[in-house]
UniProtKB/TrEMBL annotation:
PROSITE patterns according to UniProt: ALDEHYDE_DEHYDR_CYS, ALDEHYDE_DEHYDR_GLU
Gene Ontology cellular component list: cytoplasm
Pfam families linked: Aldedh
Species in which this protein is naturally found: Algoriphagus machipongonensis
CDD domains hit by this protein: ALDH_AlkH-like
UniProt keyword annotations, A-Z: NAD, Oxidoreductase
Span of domain Aldehyde dehydrogenase: 13-437
Catalytic center residues: 213, 247
The keyword NAD appears for this protein: yes
Lineage, uppermost ranks: Bacteria, Pseudomonadati, Bacteroidota, Cytophagia, Cytophagales
Protein name per its UniProtKB record: Aldehyde dehydrogenase
Domain of life: Bacteria
Family according to the record: Belongs to the aldehyde dehydrogenase family.
GO annotation (BP), single: aldehyde metabolic process
Length: 464
């Protein structure tokens, strides 16, 4: 059977399962999640090996950023699901006196999850946890750029579920396009804004609801009141984990003029301490992943070249080895808006440093760009902190840290406009795959709207 026929057969089978899963109990849903958790914990080494094969991701980073987010998400769902699924009473307004109303959380049905390559295990299975918690079935299309991890996901799901419950279709863009023709009840896409637009257009043909978890340029502001050592360490860690290939990595830094030099010094110390503590050369570090493929390696090399040709200056790094897809953690200064680096999501180990005099300059620059996925602010001054948070728009914001919010189970995670639509994680993930159905119960023989029926006459005027 070729792929389109198999997709059709799987989609129809999942529609049947979705009907029978509508009323699945909390315990049944938790059982499905526990199967995943057990498999993940028992196969940690296999997951680490697959990611190492795909882009030399260090094992510790895999545990930290691909496995822990999933096991902790499952634990959080297990603890809270009974509360989330319970119909929620809402109070009656005056005009609704005598009625009783509740919100029911019904599973949307059959869902499609399309995931990217950069956290390939976490970003395929994370949304699946939310889908299963909500009582949905799912078809997953992982990235073709991480064949080892995508293959592992396929065999894991085949071991744990019937394809009529959860199925995986590996393959390239064509597979994705074929899947997008089907009238899914919800599509959860994680990837670039460019492909997000294609997914949204395809979803509109069937009016499938969507969650779009996209990317963008997440700014990082350093105020002169910041603890610069603390800020430098946190930014270096958040920027260079996964070799900078993180949707919420600090994309560029805006630092107040008078503290720039000290920040540069602290950043260089932090890179040395994290990636080359024994002064053997960063290229020998076992803790730095590689660029995903040659195409992206060339793209990043060109971003550096373009910036240097237009006047940028190396503050740190710049060494590149194309054969091993290595790019040294690189810090650039003396940048301007004509550089490609300042106009596309970097998604690699290059950190541009811009300076500002007055905080309004930094805010204006951020507001002149599409709304970012995250915004980071380092400083101890409450007034400026509040001004930055209230005068800018971003999917999430973090004060005096970066990237950390990803792991907070009670915060909605996601973007706004160009960086995404809808939210994920914990309760917000559950809601993404649920239809919040308002149900109103009237008393028999009682009519709240007895005044508003024909003949209307002048009675209608009395209700406003
Ligand atoms: P991508 O958009 O190129 O691909 C994502 C998925 O879409 C893949 O499975 C791919 O096969 C599929 N796809 C690609 N082109 C398609 C098309 N024309 N039609 C249908 N499907 C198509 O993204 P990527 O390069 O894998 O990942 C990097 C991007 O993802 C970055 O922009 C990053 O910021 C973003 N991202 C966002 C989050 C988040 O949570 N918001 C997390 C990780 C990555």
């Amino acid at each position: 059977m070729d792929t389109p026929d198999l997709i059709n057969k799987t989609f129809l089978a999942q529609n049947k399962t979705a009907l029978s899963w509508r009323n699945s109990t909390t315990d049944q849903r938790i059982e499905r999640l526990k199967k995943i958790k057990t498999w993940v914990l028992e196969n940690e080494k296999k997951i680490q090996d697959a990611l190492f094969e795909d882009f030399k991701k260090p094992a510790a980073e895999t545990t930290l950023s691909e496995i822990y987010p999933l096991t902790s998400e499952i634990n959080h769902v297990i603890k809270n699901l009974a509360t989330w699924v319970k119909p929620k009473k809402v109070p009656s307004t005056l005009a609704m006196a005598g009625t009783k109303s509740k919100i029911y959380y019904e599973p949307k049905g059959v869902s499609l999850i399309i995931s990217p390559w950069n956290y390939p295990f976490n970003l395929a299975i994370g949304p699946l946890i939310s889908a299963l918690a909500a009582g949905c079935t799912a078809i997953i299309k992982p990235s073709e750029l991480t064949p080892h991890t995508s293959g592992l996901i396929k065999s894991m799901i085949a071991e744990l579920f019937e394809s009529s419950e959860v199925a995986v279709f590996t393959g390239d863009v064509e597979v994705s396009k074929n899947l997008l023709k089907f009238p899914f009840d919800h599509i959860f896409f994680t990837g670039s804004p460019t492909v997000g637009k294609i997914v949204m257009e395809a979803a509109s043909k069937n009016l499938s609801s969507i969650t779009l978890e996209l990317g963008g340029k997440s700014p990082t502001i350093i105020h002169d009141s910041a603890d610069l050592k603390d800020a430098a360490e946190k930014i270096i860690k958040g920027k260079f984990i996964n070799c900078g290939q993180t949707c919420i990595a600090p994309d560029y830094v805006l630092v107040q003029n008078q503290v720039k030099e000290e920040l540069m010094m602290e950043m260089k110390v932090a890179i040395q301490k994290m990636y080359d503590p024994e002064y053997k050369g960063i290229e020998h570090s076992k803790d730095l992943a590689r660029i995903i493929n040659q195409k992206n390696h060339i793209r990043l090399e060109q971003l550096i070249q373009d910036a240097i040709e237009k006047g940028a200056k190396f503050e740190f790094g710049g060494n590149i080895t194309p054969e091993t897809l290595y790019i040294e953690p690189t810090i650039l200064s003396n940048l301007n808006e004509n550089m490609d680096l300042m106009n596309e999501e970097i998604f690699g180990p290059i950190l541009p440093i811009l300076t500002y005099e007055d905080i309004q300059e930094a805010i204006d620059l951020i507001n002149s760009k599409p709304k970012p996925l995250a915004l980071y602010y380092f400083g101890k001054d409450d007034e400026t902190t509040n001004k930055v948070i209230s005068d800018t728009s971003s999917g999430n914001a973090v004060i005096n840290d970066c990237v950390l919010h990803y792991l907070h189970k009670n915060l909605p995670f996601g973007g706004v406009n160009n960086s995404g639509i809808g939210k994920a994680h914990g309760h917000y993930g559950f809601l993404a795959f649920s239809n919040e159905k308002g149900v109103l119960r009237q008393r028999v023989g009682f009519n709240n709207s007895s005044m508003i029926k024909p003949p209307y006459g002048i009675k209608v005027n009395k209700i406003i």
